[in-house]
Amino acid sequence: MNYDFLAPNQIVFGWGRRTELPKLAARLGGRILLISGSRTLERTGLIEQIVSGFTNPAVPLHRFQVASREPEVADVDALVNEFRRLSPNDRDVVVAIGGGSTIDLAKAAAAVVQNRHGDSVQDFLEGVGRGLQITLPPLPLIAVPTTSGTGTEVTKNAVISSYQPAFKKSIRSDLMVPRIVLIDPELTVSLSRETTAYTGMDAITQLIESYISRRAAPIPQALCLSGLKYAIPALPAVVRDGRSRPDREAMAHAALLSGLALANSGLGLAHGVAAALGVHCRIPHGLACAVMLSTALKVNQSVRERELAELERLFDSHHSTNAVAAGAFVSRIESLCRDIGIPSRLRDLGVSADQLPLLVPASRGNSMSGNPCDVGDQELLSLLQQIY
Length: 388
Ligand SMILES: [Zn+2]
What we know:
By secondary structure, the chain is an alpha/beta fold. The protein has helices spanning 21-28, 39-43, 46-51, 73-85, 100-112, 193-212, 218-240, 245-265, 269-281, 285-300, 305-312, 322-339, 356-362, 377-386; strands spanning 10-13, 32-36, 61-65, 93-98, 141-145, 157-163, 166-172, 180-183. β4 (93-98), α5 (100-112) and β5 form a beta-alpha-beta unit.
């Protein structure tokens, strides 16, 4: 065995533990640069409640409100400029409270602001920029996720979009892993049914794709087994009853594990195509993953039969052979998606048939490179046509 494993310095997990945030932040530094993006939490007063805990005059707080959409190049550059007006130094701490989009925006800005050899975040984006690297440590970051899905609170990349030209690419560096992650599942109670379903399917897709990835490794695989055991029963339950504490906790825990797993072993075809669906058709990330997941599993079923059988046996150990168990796992995922109202066809998402050829090259990112089997352009196009 031979592997690396990258993770935040500290993970703080528990119902109601958001009250510990001011103390954790004060331990890291001088000023707090607080980024929040969740309109829901503003409406419910939770953001104000968190902010009111920062009472230590030695640790001044600067607030930045950002749009709660998937971050674009201009959003990151604007936030970097706002940071620069404060002449930040490495005693400042960025605190990001929000969904995956807010945390990605904060991670990218915390990195770019300290790496002045680039003019824009685009200079650092894989495949579309000047190929610049993050060489200096970003401002230390505390991530406080308010959805249970992307896992970006523990990963080393941030996904940044552009619509003209259209791309969705990562800025990535080992230095970008958040320093502290605070997960308070109570923050997810007010999420809508739809957001709960989509972000939950993102976490499940990440756990499965990491488990069968070409770069699968022992620690991430162990995490995936634990995460799926929690998430697959909890997701339909929490979509039915968003106030269920044990199910919200299960999904928050599974999402955390999915982030740790994907950051250390990569993803696959569902995530590759989801990036393309996001940028060309503006489909929310988790929904795109959910629609693509069973197709991705069928494509890889013959080369990952044993692994898919292992996942099925977390729930039912009575299948006679690996082939039967692997097939049952794919059916389990299909019925989970039906159960929580995920459409099964791309046309139901508003994708038009003439967009399908555009999706093929746009799917070829870092995620696709982890897919267990090679899928050629023609094969990928015909897969997309089959589920259109
Ligand atoms: Zn994802």
